[in-house]
Amino acid sequence: MYFVFDIESIPDIPLLRSLIDNPPEDDKTLLELAGEEFGRGKSGFLPPMYHQMVSWVGLWVTSGGEPKQKVAWSGKNEREGLLSLVDSLTTYKDFGVIHHNGKGFDLPLINYRALKHGLQLPSRLNAHDIRYRFSKQNVDLMDEFSNFGASSYPRLKHIGALVGIPLKVTGEGDEVLEMYQNGELDRIEHYCYEDVMATYLIWLHLQYTCNSLNESDFQNLRRRALSKLEEIQNEAT
């Protein structure tokens, strides 16, 4: 079994305030300073250590690509969300994970936030099959398509455009903080679910391209996944 997943997060404002000398009162200026000190400039995205989780969505699929179960959480109680994720990840013993940039962001974020809240993660996440960068049980689409950094890292939206998958109807990543501040948690989860379905679809394309799926199974799974993606996007409009 594989767990196709994505996490939505926002900057951890209290943590940033505790780390910056004489922090400004308004959050916008604080984030600009944090971007300069910890990220990639004022508009740079902060590394995973400085984020808190506000939503996650996962889709359990078989090694043959058959979807089995969708699980999700969104909210303001991050500890509750982590416990929910841990509970979901104990559904199967020897699972793999599929994601886009999960090695660079989502998985480190899970570790940092579990550390913050004093929680234990499933031992599977620390297994060699998952921790080893070139593992077939930890599939990062960024690594797969860039040949582990030998080529440039592709954006999920751009791969989707390449194979005819429309993405980002619900929102863009830099809009999550605004949605969170407006109390639009359902919208954030919707956005996260859209990314998960896109990741799943692109993984299906990769499996077919690499000759791991026959054409009949691929076309059937792709048709069903595109229908679900369209349903998700229609609900967001």
TrEMBL record:
GO terms for molecular function: nucleic acid binding. Pfam families: DNA_pol_B_exo2 (PF10108). Gene3D superfamilies: Ribonuclease H-like superfamily/Ribonuclease H. Residues 44-231 form the Predicted 3'-5' exonuclease PolB-like domain. It comes from the Bacteria. This is Ribonuclease H-like domain-containing protein.
